[in-house]
Amino acid sequence: MDLSEFKAYVAKTFEDDDVCHCVFFKSKHTGQHFAGVVTEEDGVYWSFVVANERHLKKQRIRSENCNRASAKSKQSYGKETAVKNCTEMYNELVKDEFSQNFGFRVYNVDPNCYYNPDKYLVKGDVIQRDLIGGLPASHEGIYVGNGMVIHNTNGKNICKTTLKEFAGGSDVQLRVVDYCIQRKTPDEICTLAESFLKINKKYNVVFNNCQHFTSLCATGVEFMTDKRQLTEKIVVSGIIITVIAQGTLHKLAKEKQEINGITIIIATSETIAEYYLVIVALVSVTVSPLATKRTETYRQTRPIYVENTHATNTNILEPIANGAVAVVDTFVDGICAIGNGFVSLFTAPRRRQTQRQNNDVLYN
Known about the structure:
7-stranded antiparallel beta sheet, 13 strands, 22% strand, 4-stranded antiparallel beta sheet, endopeptidase fold (from Nostoc punctiforme), 364 residues, alpha+beta, single chain, 45% helix
């Protein structure tokens, strides 16, 4: 949105708050506009930096490392201090001095984007879709304009395809990952993505996957946008999946036989997918205590939904918990890839048979 629309958006966002300071500015490098806002409530002052994000008008799915309205915020107990904090935060942005906390929001893209991509997407956008197979993760790519996407995919490595090929069909819901603070211009993102086409860097689900590629192009740092979401989903669903796994283990126990003293499970195409759930359940049981401990530590050391770049973390458990979760995240990535491969391997013949039956119905 242009500056006038952005100013109206900021006014609407803080219309119910007691605003005592507001200033607008923009980044010298990217030209992105920001608003520095200070509000007061019961003697407590909040300093906000609101970013003019590219897709604010779209339907929001989730946010990470940012609160409902701002890219940065900080609490204080005096107006002068709050204004000073606000000034420091936007001065950092004007000078293109960024923290390593990458706040972003995920938005749904209009389904008509397949027919007129440049109307709904911007060059340099990080776009994503659900992984095939129902896994709780996303495949991501860089939209480079004219309906083309550069992405890192298993089997093809970094390649350039059409938007429809990237999605796997024109009926697939696409999403856009909008980084609140733009660290690179659209041309810089696209140029970097294009340069990787000349480098034969092989895809690796753990160390060089599609999300590592898009985050590197958009921010200059490799990380996974689904990391926290995957961990939370595993923790939340751990008990439910464990219950399913108990029933599956009972079923598999009936399909085993003893050969030379070694127990071999005979997994049919129906049970292989369920066996994958057993693996995920076991991972869930392992992850839950670690992730819960990390969540408790995080809440003790940082304000919830607030990126506080000036906070000092003195809790000795934090790096230990972070390291443990990082190891588990890597393990989960591998398990997901193996599970997806098993499901595809054993269900592909059935899908082909179903497709042939459907074709027979259509053409008879």
